């Protein structure tokens, strides 16, 4: 076997799937999906075909033309990769697999009515990055295998579905399309409806996405609707927050070339969504925590929009090269933010990222492999080592190249890079070769090997230069001397300014200083989770147990890993934390049913390591 990806059973000697046709029957009472997966290969193939699965029960594999069964076997369970499904083909171009998801599918979160905003209907949504598509349907779950797909979702009539694909129609179920996923009478029940979608551009499997629930929408631009649960206040606040989306798309097109995905719709998910956003093409998924009421949440939208070029059009070959997705996108996001919101806001964004990068160096001090841009993740769960390094060190590398050759030349280079590699999956060497070919002599000016293969932060990385950034950092330094910022100094601060201030405060402060800061500025009550969580980390490190009630409330009302990871870590890391460890374990036990499986795993790993 010659693997193409440390996180996939896909064999480089086997053909890659080009199209997948999916038939799904959603059974909310059992939290399962019964599915028929029709895989198409580029040419007739004889030999073994190996696919990725995780927590799937495979009932049969069929030749769709002759309807005869095909021999298949499932491997032993690998704790990271799942199980390989190997099928023996004999001159076939297509194979049909019948399978069923497990209620514990790592990609799916099933929410009962009480866990939703309206408390009336259930809800289910996906999160397939990095390696979770395989827990919904068998596939070559690697970014190397870009596929087009079609999908029929059979769901309860009172619900509706969205996908990261073009919506074809909503209609009554037909007995001719069942494909063996269930009985005809069940498929065609009076209470059922079929939503049909098609994705006509080849995407990596981690960008496969859907959500099913009681959904409403608001139009916010010529290419953009905002979807969310059908709650007017959620939809209205989202529409206000993201009103400037079309302007950002136009800026993106000016910087990076045409927007190739037709629609740029947004879905605001329930609070359990584990990420800030997920760049699913045509239908970006967002946490409700980005709706802050001051349009700063639009920066997350700018990041997911930038992925439309870097990540979705050009994709990392595998997770060892994740920086090609996220470093480029962080750079592109900041260019869009600078154009739309101004240089000062972009500098704040860079400054917050810089502090995050410095903190990751501390996190990985015992395993510096994961401070590199090009990593070796063989035998490692990508969710466990997910960090700001590929984002912020990747950004710093590209910003360093921009400083070297000048922005106009770098802009031309970026456009050419995107045009050259679009709809391809590439690795670090392919990027570096392209860079050296198009910017002759760059390797004599910048140590490309140090940047991509070295650990830590290279000496020619830099903090942003801006008056507002310098002022906030110096105010944070004065806090160490006991001086709190005056009200006139922070009068025009929004969430980002406070976030940067809190990130730059010393890690060890007196409990009295923490309570005094909160008494004046009420940071523990902030509606902006970045600010609230930044303050609560400070309170935990100062052992201000008065705030543990707010910590508990926060850990129980959101499932975004950006907040769970630092709060649980602050509670359990370090000596003499016995009381905190008991508290953290209790809160996790009570809250974990409300977290997505990916977030459950991350929080559980933190507690297992320290508590």
Automatic annotation (TrEMBL):
Gene3D superfamilies according to UniProt: 3.30.2010.30, Neutral Protease Domain 2, Peptidase M1, leukotriene A4 hydrolase/aminopeptidase C-terminal domain, tricorn interacting facor f3 domain
Alphabetized Pfam families for the sequence: Leuk-A4-hydro_C, Peptidase_M1, Peptidase_M1_N
The keyword Zinc is assigned to this record: yes
Keyword line: Cytoplasm, Hydrolase, Metal-binding, Metalloprotease, Protease, Zinc
Peptidase M1 leukotriene A4 hydrolase/aminopeptidase C-terminal domain ranges (all copies): 467-607
Coiled-coil residue windows: none
Subcellular location: Cytoplasm
Active-site residues, record numbering mapped to chain: 304 (proton acceptor), 391 (proton donor)
Cofactor note (record): Binds 1 zinc ion per subunit.
UniProt: Zn(2+) binding residues: 303, 307, 326
Required cofactor(s): Zn(2+)
SMART domains cross-referenced by the UniProt entry: Leuk-A4-hydro_C
Keyword check for Protease: yes
Residues at which a peptide binds: 127-129, 274-279, 560-562
Any single Gene Ontology cellular-component annotation: cytosol
InterPro entries documented for this protein: Aminopeptidase_N-like_N (IPR045357), Aminopeptidase_N-like_N_sf (IPR042097), ARM-type_fold (IPR016024), LTA4H_cat (IPR049980), M1_LTA-4_hydro/amino_C_sf (IPR038502), M1_LTA4H (IPR034015), Peptidase_M1 (IPR001930), Peptidase_M1_C (IPR015211)
Superkingdom per UniProt: Eukaryota
One Gene Ontology molecular-function label: metallopeptidase activity
Enzyme class: hydrolase
Stated family: Belongs to the peptidase M1 family.
Job description of the protein: Aminopeptidase that preferentially cleaves di- and tripeptides. Also has low epoxide hydrolase activity (in vitro). Can hydrolyze the epoxide leukotriene LTA(4) but it forms preferentially 5,6-dihydroxy-7,9,11,14-eicosatetraenoic acid rather than the cytokine leukotriene B(4) as the product compared to the homologous mammalian enzyme (in vitro).
Protein known as: Leucine aminopeptidase
């Amino acid at each position: 076997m010659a693997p193409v990806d440390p996180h996939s059973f896909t064999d480089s000697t086997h053909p890659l799937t080009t199209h997948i046709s999916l038939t799904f029957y959603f059974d909310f009472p059992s939290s399962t999906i019964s599915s028929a997966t029709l895989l198409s290969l580029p040419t007739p193939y004889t030999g073994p075909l190996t696919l990725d699965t995780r927590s799937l029960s495979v009932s049969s594999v069929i030749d769709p033309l002759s309807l005869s069964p095909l021999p298949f076997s499932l491997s032993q369970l690998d704790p990271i990769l799942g199980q390989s499904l190997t099928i023996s083909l004999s001159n076939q171009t297509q194979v049909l697999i019948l399978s069923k998801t497990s209620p514990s599918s790592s990609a799916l979160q099933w929410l009962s009515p009480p866990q939703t905003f309206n408390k009336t209907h259930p809800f289910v949504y996906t999160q397939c990055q990095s390696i979770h598509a395989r827990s919904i349907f068998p596939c070559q779950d690697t970014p190397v295998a870009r596929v087009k797909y079609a999908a029929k979702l059979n769901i309860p009539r009172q619900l509706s579905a969205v996908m990261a694909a073009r919506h074809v129609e909503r209609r009554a179920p037909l007995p001719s399309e069942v494909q063996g996923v269930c009985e005809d009478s069940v498929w065609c029940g009076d209470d059922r409806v079929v939503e049909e979608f098609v994705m006509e551009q080849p995407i990596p499997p981690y960008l496969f996405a859907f959500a099913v629930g009681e959904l409403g929408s608001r139009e916010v631009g010529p290419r953009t609707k905002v979807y969310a649960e059908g709650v007017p206040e959620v939809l209205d606040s989202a529409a206000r927050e993201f009103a400037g989306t079309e302007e950002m798309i136009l800026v993106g097109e000016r910087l990076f070339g045409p927007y190739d995905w037709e629609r740029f719709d947004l879905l605001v998910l329930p609070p359990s969504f584990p990420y800030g956003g997920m760049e699913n093409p045509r239908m970006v998924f967002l946490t409700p925590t980005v709706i802050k009421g001051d349009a700063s949440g639009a920066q997350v939208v700018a990041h997911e929009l930038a992925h439309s070029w870097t990540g979705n059009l050009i994709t990392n070959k595998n997770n060892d090269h994740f920086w090609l997705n996220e470093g480029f996108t962080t750079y592109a996001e900041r260019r869009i933010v600078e154009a739309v919101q101004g240089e000062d806001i972009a500098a704040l964004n860079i400054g917050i990222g810089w502090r995050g990068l410095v903190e990751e160096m501390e996190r990985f001090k015992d395993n510096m492999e994961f401070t590199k841009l090009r990593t070796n993740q063989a035998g490692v769960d990508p969710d466990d080592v997910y960090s700001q390094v590929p984002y912020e060190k990747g950004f710093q590398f590209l910003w360093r190249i921009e400083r070297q050759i000048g922005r106009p030349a770098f802009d031309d280079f970026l456009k050419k890079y995107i045009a050259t590699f679009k709809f391809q999956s590439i690795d670090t060497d392919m990027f570096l070769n392209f860079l050296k070919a198009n910017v002759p002599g760059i390797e004599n000016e910048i140590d490309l090997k140090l940047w991509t293969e070295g650990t830590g932060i290279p000496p020619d990385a830099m903090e942003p230069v801006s008056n507002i950034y310098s002022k906030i950092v110096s105010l944070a330094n004065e806090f160490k001397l006991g001086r709190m910022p005056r009200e006139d100094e922070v009068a025009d601060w929004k969430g980002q300014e406070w976030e940067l201030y809190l990130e730059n405060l010393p890690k060890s402060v007196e409990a009295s200083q923490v309570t005094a800061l909160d008494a004046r500025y009420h940071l523990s009550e902030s509606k902006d989770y970045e600010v609230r969580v930044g303050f609560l980390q400070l309170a935990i490190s100062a052992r201000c147990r008065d705030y543990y009630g707010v910590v508990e409330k926060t850990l129980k009302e959101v499932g975004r890993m950006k907040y769970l990871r630092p709060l649980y870590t602050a509670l359990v890391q370090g000596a003499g934390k016995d009381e905190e460890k008991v508290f953290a374990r209790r809160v996790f036990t009570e809250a974990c049913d409300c977290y997505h499986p990916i977030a459950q795993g991350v929080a559980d790993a933190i507690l297992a390591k320290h508590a």
